[in-house]
Amino acid sequence: MIKQYLILFRIPQWIKNLFVFVPLIFSQNLFKGDYFIKTLHGFLLFCLTSSVVYVINDIIDIEADRAHPEKQKRPLASGKISKKSGIISSVVLSILIVSQMPFFNYLFNLSVIFYFFLNFFYSISLKHIVILDVFVIAAGFMLRVVAGAFVINVEISSWLILTTMFISLFLGVMKRHSELHISAVDSTVATRKVLMHYSSDFTSQMATVASAGVIICYALYTVAQRTVSVFGTENLIYTTPFVVFGIFRYMYLVYLGKKGENTSEIMVTDLPMIINVLLYFLAVTLILYKIF
Description:
Number of helices: 14
CATH topology of the largest domain: Tetracycline Repressor, domain 2
Order of helices and strands: HHHHHHHHHHHHHH
Structural class: mainly alpha
Low-confidence stretches: none
Oligomer: single chain
CATH superfamily of the largest domain: UbiA prenyltransferase
Helix content: over 70%
Distance between the termini: 49 Å
Mean pLDDT: 89
Number of domains: 2
CATH architecture of the largest domain: Orthogonal Bundle
Largest sheet: none
Number of strands: 0
């Protein structure tokens, strides 16, 4: 039963909340204990909040999930956890979240609250509105980054926020593209209503724009005068190839590997992607913290 609740809370999806650490890393405070602990605390709060959102989403979509070949295995859809127990678990998590909020400043708390309601309305209606659905997904990632800055009271570059927006749009569009492929292969599979307004060509064009936005914004961030001035180096530009490779690798996995419906699964199971992320993190750390 404990395993079923862990599945219900989507523990593997918590990897998305690592975006909270972006301001910590790029503000050169990664190795400051108090900053790290505060950010880690904020990360855990976002994890709990996202789990509440997932439970609510599963409750709302319980009937639709039962008609999906993969989603029907989810605890609520399969009946392994009752709907009543799902509601109770979401309430317990919400109480735990509220109990932790006094430890944070009001700007971070507002970010968490806004994140919750944004995703709540996404679950009940916004996910059915074409284009707006992927923008809501992107907004969720941007809120994580902004909250990461609020939790340790640091400024964050506008270029990094734009990069986050484009990379989250990219991931959202890739997810829609994968869902379209699944529905095309098996027409009996129940799909999102919003997919009727998308096509493979349209999502491919959107993905091209979003991927270009990621690469351009990140490259401009690395050479921006403020970036060079703050970090005292121009070497951050050498981390750009890792970003480009990550984008191309993801596109390869979606277009040729027919993956992409589960972003977290790709990030933790694809070895080249894992190595690329680790090398990127290592390169950024060596450059920003001048560890040679």
